[in-house]
Inverse folding.
């Protein structure tokens, strides 16, 4: 069995103001079941706790003060985890919740414990759903991003492929929403200054990352020898197509 780590952005899994996108999760669960039949285990790194918790607590937009962000993360994580569990159980798949902070990967002892737990969950046929522990890890809320977390989880799980599902279908030479002459880049073998210059900030009202964080994460993965892909969360059967070796999104190929 191979292992695929998929990172899902807030704007992909949460509909602003209305909560979890159940149709998306239902399709993700269906693909996870099909991936299993193709010889792939799945590990999910899911954003969206704060975006899911904010409307449940009556916020009309993402709050700016830290205690409110922590409260939103706490409430939203429960709703998000329940949604994953319900949709994946429809396909006979068990999910688990794994909350990490960067301290869990900074210490060698903590790193090994996290690795062993994640590896064992996958061996038992579980689909781990990983997120940063935003209720206590205040630095992650202020400066962090789950793109980097997905890269670290890929290393922990010994992944064969890391896929980022976002609101854009891959990397372009410039922001395609601002520059109509922007060209799609199908494959990247080296992340240099020119590639980094093509990145921009997050255009989502519920996300905190952007293409620059995805490129930094891809650089970590390339150093670790793990191929990665940035693709649209709306692309039909993207994960299954990648498992079959088909071209989807932008692929980052390690040296």
């Amino acid at each position: 069995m191979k292992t695929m780590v998929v990172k899902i952005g807030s704007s992909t899994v949460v509909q602003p103001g209305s909560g979890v996108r159940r149709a998306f999760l239902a399709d993700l669960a269906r693909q996870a079941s099909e991936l299993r039949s193709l010889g792939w285990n799945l590990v999910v790194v899911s954003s969206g706790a704060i975006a899911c918790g904010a409307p449940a607590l009556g916020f009309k937009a993402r709050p700016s003060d830290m205690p409110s962000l922590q409260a939103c993360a706490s409430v939203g994580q429960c709703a998000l985890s329940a949604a994953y569990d319900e949709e994946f159980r429809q396909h006979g798949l068990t999910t688990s919740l794994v909350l990490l902070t960067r301290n869990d990967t900074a210490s060698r002892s903590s790193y090994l414990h996290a690795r062993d737990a994640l590896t064992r969950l996958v061996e038992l046929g579980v689909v781990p759903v990983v997120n940063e522990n935003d209720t206590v890890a205040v630095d992650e809320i202020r400066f962090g991003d789950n793109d980097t977390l997905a890269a670290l989880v890929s290393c922990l799980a010994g992944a064969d492929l890391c896929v980022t599902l976002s609101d854009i279908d891959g990397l372009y030479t410039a922001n395609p929403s601002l520059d109509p002459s922007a060209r799609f880049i199908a494959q990247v073998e080296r992340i240099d200054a020119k590639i980094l210059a093509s990145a921009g900030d997050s255009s989502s009202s519920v996300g905190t990352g952007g293409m620059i964080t995805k490129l930094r994460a891809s650089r970590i993965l390339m150093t670790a020898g793990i191929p990665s892909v940035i693709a649209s969360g709306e692309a039909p059967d993207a994960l299954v197509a990648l498992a079959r070796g088909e071209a989807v999104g932008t692929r980052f190929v390690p040296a």
Summary: The chain is about 45% helix and 20% strand.
